[in-house]
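Example record for the data management plan.
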Amino acid sequence: MSWRALNSLSLSSLPAHGKLIEVPSPMKKPLLAALCLTLATGCSMTATKKMRSPASGESTQDSGPSVDPTFMLKDVPAPLTYPAQPLWLGIPSDRAGGKSTIFKKEIDIAAPDQNTFIFITACKSFDLKVNGKKIGKSPFGGKNNKFGWKQTHIYNIGRYLKPGRNVIAVKVRSFKYKKEDSSWLATSDKKWVNGGLIARIETPSQFISWTDRSWQIQRGKEWVSAEELGSPSLTRFIDDDDDILNAWPDYFPESPDYIRHLTLKPIHIEAHGVVSGTDSITVDSSKLSEGQAPFVILDFGKEIGGRLVLKSDQMSVADIAVGESLEELNSPYHDGQKIVTTKGGTSSTDYTAFRYAKVSFPVIQGMANVKTYTEMDIDHDFYPVEYGGSFDCSDPRLTKIWYTGAYTAHLCMQFGILDGPKRDRGEWMGDIGVSGKVIDDVFGDTFLMEKSLTDLRTAAQGTSAPGELPQKHVNGFSGYSCAWISALADFHRHQGDLGYLTSQKSNLISMLEYLQKDLDDRGVFANLHKADDFVDWAPGLEDDSPQNREDIHFTLLKAVNDAVFMFQELGDSEKAQYYQTLAENLKVSGHKIFFDQASSTFGPYRQVNAMAVLSGTPSGSDGENIYEKILQPSSPAWKAIATPYYNYYVLEAMAELGHYDGALEVIRNYWGGMLDLGATTFWEAYDPSWPKEHFHDHLKADDGEGTFVSLAHGWSAGPTAWLTENVLGIRPKSGGFKSVEISPHLEDLQWASGSVPTPHGILSVKVEKKDKGLRVNLTLPAGIHAKVILPGEKTGESFVREIDAPGSYEIDSP
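Corresponding structural encoding:
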């Protein structure tokens, strides 16, 4: 690479990631004769040994019931204190409309270093001059390139500096669009902000300057102080999910104070090329040519949500690829990132979920050939919660599934309750409809649950006044509006905060009214709002279709039943009666229009039949026919695809019909099938028929196939809630666990035990087979009325005991 090429160095011209394990020929010699080194981090380091994905049946769990690194964490770390950073400088509002603004900084340097670097980017584009000499410009022209500012440009300006006064001048061009409001964040794709500049100047050993109020902008013939916009981690100039300022020196995005951080070390490091180390990792590229890049692969042993953090003793550049699997390292979902660290500095990638990381070390002219990384860890971002819920049973596979689901849901608890920590990293109500039940049963959280429920309903309301109809469905999906209602009800059953429920009453009423406008003159759901409706990532159920409308009809009926419960809790008998009548009408119209008399089912889709069961629509022998022909695990209907998301509702329907044995079979084989392939969290999509080798390449979701599919998705955590609510049988029946029903179902298990958090304290249950019946040991906090339901002496009979006083009880069935 020539000096001129280096002077115009941008990310696109730095050496790219090679294929996994594909090492350039000069680096194919085994490092230290394949010596396995033990690092002080407690991991192993192997030279040029090809890694593999975990084999079938191979455990990647830590000792103990949970793989969650924060499980039973005694001391929760304090919020991070972030170091000072350069600031984005803004273009004044009167320079909007595509005009340019000149920024300048005067710097006195006694003895310039020939290797002095400027790191720079601008929104929208820039021209850079040093002492009047044009050095370079961003190659991001065209009004449609909205993301050019995310790419940091690196220039070696040392040869243009002189002893004494030096002038750095940057012309920044703004967008040709106007802002919608006074904030510097854009609100839509067609209304962008004026833009800004951020820069940092230093040598490999010394900091010189960065953008702050000492920089100036030109106003006519005068120079005035520039306006500060925010730190590098406030990098979002327009709406975009990937908030990455790539290759910014010592970059570390800020998190809300309620997110905490835990440092995790890799369990295995695999070195390729001129890399060595014991208590640190040293890269010696002095004998390599530019364009060659030794690398290491890090394995952290489990799915983690966070960022890779590097600390180096020299200014250095590293190419980073992270993946939830080894396959994903070849084509990272979040693309490759570059980390630039200053001497003694710490820098990180952006937040995502991953297990593996590939770190390559390109040779950069002007930077040290030998550098030592004293840190190469994960900063694990987590929302601090306590595992108030627990589960154990005579089948270790089910216990492992319970804790894997709990960890999956926990990883999704970030700035809100996300669908997944890798993608989409957004609040999706369908996902929260499942993960929220897990959070209720395991963590008993209120802050994030209320935040996400409120966020989603507020977004649907748009600019409509409170009490008026919302402008759209939740997340734009009719079924997700229904899911919001049902999740609100389930949250209230667990937490019982009448204040919060009251605050959502007008939102509840207006959403129910909005949903009623989707009914046709037959009284069935017809998507009259023309929403882009979604039911499941399964053929025939991904977009608006007759079967989608059928499914959403039953989802609406279920939501209306939940609304009746909430109006009763609020003491509004008039609304409760009105919606009870609506529910009865929906049940009648749904059965009349959608029930197939020939098959005695609601069609071939198990998703649709499951929701019909949960809505209470089947009558007489309909339910048993549906189970035998559609829901039974041996039914041909199971050859069709359903995600873990909707298979949770299938489990619930099986339990509703009394087939707990079939549901346990599905949990062991379907969710257990992911564990057999090495899962440490549950995946966005899975089917046992898909190829097992390089499984991540073959997962299918969102009209695509491959490693973009998330390996940690909250909507897949459902078995955790199911096992608590059906095997232990713990279900709150009124707000805040004022009353609870405990009706355990062991089936082929010998015993099961566990707990749930309630506003009154921890409620714990142990159930075991005793003679021909069951024995329940119950610990009941004060303030809860419990109804314990056990099998009676004869088939179909039940033994019921009601308890009002707190204490420990031993209850035997007859």
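Summary line stored alongside the record: The chain has a mean pLDDT of 86.
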